[in-house]
Amino acid sequence: MSGLGQVWLIAKREMASQARSKAFVISTGLIVVMAYVGTLLLGLLAADSAADEGPSVAAPDKGKVVLAGTFDRVPGGFVFLLGYELAEVPNAEAAEAAVRSGEAEAAIVGDDAAGPLGIVVLARETAPDDILAALTFTPQVVLLEPPKVQGVVTAIAGMVFALLFFIIVVLYAQIAAQNTVVEKQTRVIELLLSTMRARALLAGKILSNALLAFGTVALIALALVLGMWQGGAGKLLVGGDVAQALGGATLWDALAGPMAWFLVFFALAFVMFAALMVGSAATVSRLEDVSAVIMPTMFLIMIPYMLVMSLPENKALTAWLSFIPFSAPTAMPIRLIGGGVPWWQVAASLATLAVTTLIAILVGGRLYEGSILRTGARVRFADAFRSGA
What we know:
With 389 residues, this protein is α/β, with parallel strands linked by helices. It contains 15 helices and seven strands.
């Protein structure tokens, strides 16, 4: 059997074993259900909070639009604003005050810095689509008061990424590490290694748990999307630079890209941590010793996680963490939610993580090969690394 065939055979064996475990099925189901219910409630609560603030604009057939220094810029440009009450104000400050107070639904203001037309539309919380559609030109839109509640929802979404990464990586990587020791204790490993190479066995074990972890994350992501859709969170507007750039961005717009990138970062990071945990676990022969030998890897997961969770508003720290391989899977998606991240930074972060993952696979493989058949006392990392050469 070829090397790839051996890897896939081990992967199928591991996945079938996990699928038969009631504890695994129940825990996975609970996580998915909690993600769905939590997102559903979040959307409903946020929608209720937004509704409590009251209507921010008048109905289109009763709305008032104020103009400041614009008639001479686009002659006849406002003739299609039928049904709106048009009123001139002396300057841009007066126009902005009318919009903020709710007196006007929007303001059309002359601004020499606003592109070739020199026209900008001011609105409070959302881009006035009906007004924009009625105009005979396409102006720049500025939102004066992006909704605060949606900014909170976006911040919570970033924390969900961090929490999801921590729980799934720790859960599945630990399962792979514990199964490695169980195979040593029951001498199953000796039978397996009589028919295949150690590296193929290690690769199959990591692949199986990676597929299970990725499948769980995909299910949770689906539950989050379903919860946002049914709870109305997907229709909420987010504040900040994203909303300003898009003229009013929904939670779908803000989260679709980061969620996709999170899955890519997660896949690489899981392989990295699983390789280190399984390689470390191979150096012991008792389940009681597993926690001690995988603790260094756990610190590599926990410390960046705690930094990201405790300092979510520290943009400078989050930017640095997005280039560290152990924290990039959580820090980079959080940065992407806020928008404005150059593409080269995403590429650099991903490349750094990929290189580190390759190094982790080589290190974990050496530890695994050098200690998997050695029973009894714990094998020192240095000894296992030399024996695996």
